[in-house]
Description:
- The complex is a heterodimer.
- By secondary structure, chain A is mostly helical.
- In chain A, 86% of the residues lie in helices and 0% in strands.
- In chain A, helix 2 runs parallel beside helix 6.
- Chain A is elongated and about 65 Å long.
- Chain B is α/β, with parallel strands linked by helices.
- Chain B has a single domain, classed as 3-Layer(aba) Sandwich (Rossmann fold), CATH 3.40.50.
- In chain B, the strands form 2 sheets. Chain B has a 6-stranded mixed β-sheet, with helices on both faces. In chain B, strands 2-1-4-5 form a 4-stranded antiparallel β-sheet, covered by helices on one side.
- In chain B, helix 3 (99-110) packs across helix 4, helix 3 runs parallel beside helix 5 and helix 5 runs parallel beside helix 6.
- The termini of chain B are far apart.
- The interface between A and B is medium-sized, with 14 and 27 residues.
Amino acid sequence: MNFFATIGRAVLTVLAHIGRLALFTGRALAGVASPPIYTRLILSQMLRIGYYSLPVVGLTAFFTGGVLALQIYLGGNRFGAESIVPQVTVLAITRELGPVIAGLMIAGRVGAAIAAEIGTMKVTEQIDALTTLATNPVKYLVVPRVVAAVISMPILTAIGDSIGVFGGYVVSVYNLNFTGYTYLKNTIDFAHNDDITSGLIKAAVFGFIVALMGCYNGFNSKGGAQGVGNATTNAVVTSSILILAADYVLTALLFHK
Amino acid sequence: MTTPKIQLIGVKKRFGPKVVLDGIDLTIDKQSSLVVIGGSGTGKSVMIKSVLGIIPPDEGTILVDGEDVTHLRGAARDKVMKKFGMLFQGAALFDSLPVWENVGFGLIQGHGVPRKKARDIAIQKLAKVGLTEDVAFLSPSELSGGMQKRVGLARAIAADPEIIFFDEPTTGLDPIMADIINDLIVSTVKDVGATALSITHDMTSARKISDKIAMLYGGKIIWTGPTGEIDHSGNPYVEQFIHGRAEGPIKMAVKA
């Protein structure tokens, strides 16, 4: 009896969370669509979410590109297809690894920060204070972060893509005896616009997920320091899982033939 | 007979199985100061948050100037909120903004006052609570608890609200600072001609800032009367509370 009660309770909790998240998403989208729009806050959030994430995203992209080139070379070597390194690298980076790795880094860097900041505002009644000052907390806190993340992520990913390809180039030319010209020519000739834009669309969706989950968990945190800690963990874990799940769905949709 | 400023009729709120408010009836006249006393965890905060729409009640009606505001949302809610100012227990200052922007926040966001003008008004309001101009450019985290309360008070009165709520205004302050805050509350409320609703368990503060006192116990208002009559209430619950006795009809719930 107890066993079934436990399962039942768990199912109800999950359903309640999904419902609350759906409502929260609706409120956020309604906030985007209606005035006032806080341009000043959007710009400052773009600085925090986008610009300050450049070093992290750039470094991870560089090493990802490098290791990809190396692995593809070693794998291709088994059946004499070493020359395919530039083509596979650019495809893997623009379609998949560029947006996904940028998304996961942003989930760790930005999602956690958003959840911690909003969570602290929640437990210290700052969010209630916004309401008493005739300011809608969703519009003031959530909308600027979501909009900034959706705009920043594709830009970050485009830069990360370039750095990732460059990482592959460096390893190939200095370690695997490719000539620089051939490597770049093969990269540019092979990559389609679709490969790049599909990655950027994914990036925008991932940005939305990270900002939304950060805000949602922050808004629902309770009980002081521990509650804020839980909110931060949940924000990172849920947005990471959702990024990977959304990645699959988006790939299936974007490359549906 | 004039319409009361705020009226709560049969307001009920429960969290899961726990009934917090069990039919609150309360009337606050225009330009009067009502203090609600009650022990910790008796739902005082929930009561004022239900008036502010932060925690909507399950049942009952809340009238502000005779207008039903119980379930207002969105722009209509923001419009009503412009009548209110609130001083939070922990001051709840926005730590990402300098002091002056905290004070001017409602003016800038809610009333569309230009930033420069809002800053001038903020500095005037800070002067009213005894803070000098150089404080205006500090960050809230650089201030002591008493100073944060003063900034919170300046923020609450910045937009000349018709109604001001005080949530435990003296909790956590030393007795002298508490008395200074009490004086400031009395003078600022009189200054702007506001209606005040405070919640506290500090009897010294309650006597000083109120015209009327109400006591909340078991989710209901069990006694209301003018401040002068609190010592002759004849109500054993009130007697026990104002004299701070451990023995009496009130049994403190140790576990929430």
